[in-house]
């Protein structure tokens, strides 16, 4: 389509677009390559503690960073200005004479912004993967339940995780299109997706009901973590993708209707009126409310935070068993399987006066296991910091020979004791 090619070229020749593409192509590789060689790793970021063990961890760290605010900001720079730039330059009349169809103009601009958005994501994936593999190598990856993914499985899962964030990126891209149409020549259109993503991320930091959490497209930026458990926790991920596609359809539809109804003969009218802003915001708010209501009815357990004692105990037991087997192999001890360990966990939150549910950094868990042929039962203590999105960090609190801080010599170099600090994930929808 000539109009699409024209709009795509217009986007790609802009200095801002070229600069963003260059940054997405070079910065992730440089970041991963440099950080992977450091002794101090970004352990607060999911998979950050494994950056010097496998190249695939670096790509996931970049993914986590991009999902926090990077992707909404990138789509803001692309979709948030694709219509507004015509208002600032005063070129609508010339464009209408050349194309003669508001519908074709809208489709061309929307497809051009979609193409550039996908190109940006492809650059991030390629750059981060190449940087990690070149700096560290193609080694197995430890999942969020402690199980070991082979290099091939790690590659497939990492690529799938990146693919899953395309849907929420499109949702914020559609919101950018809507903001660009509504706000006209105002530069605020550039900020709409980023500001909305920031507001949603702040809301997701709070212990809000699971139904409301899943009704927001930004939650899909976090749900890919469920792919790194065994079996994969796909419920929140699939819901997040569907919700994101619904937001994409509604926001794009609103932008289209308001664009084709605009009077382009009036140069003073750029579409930015209070009535149109309210008309655009209400359907999206109604969509979020209706989605939350449907999820609450379909899954009664989604009215709480989703962080429950039983879920944490099951998750930590599984992760500990997997990592104990890994530690045994690294220390060249007699082999043992997860089933033979018969691991169990007892967790408590904040003492007897606090109910054992909800996020917080006051969870304390005691893991017990028994080695084959041994009469005594082993135990280890962990302090857990559980976030509202279901991710937790378990910090070993003794005994030091089991989950203390010491280095283990492996075939790829010295690595920290895998049982010292571990990342875990609980499915907020799982009723356990």
From TrEMBL:
Keywords, comma-separated and alphabetical: Membrane, Transmembrane, Transmembrane helix
Nucleotidyltransferase is among the record's keywords: no
Transmembrane segments: 20-36, 56-85, 106-137, 157-183, 190-216, 236-257, 277-298
Key word Transmembrane helix present: yes
Name this polypeptide is given: ABC transporter permease
Protein species of origin: Aeromicrobium ginsengisoli
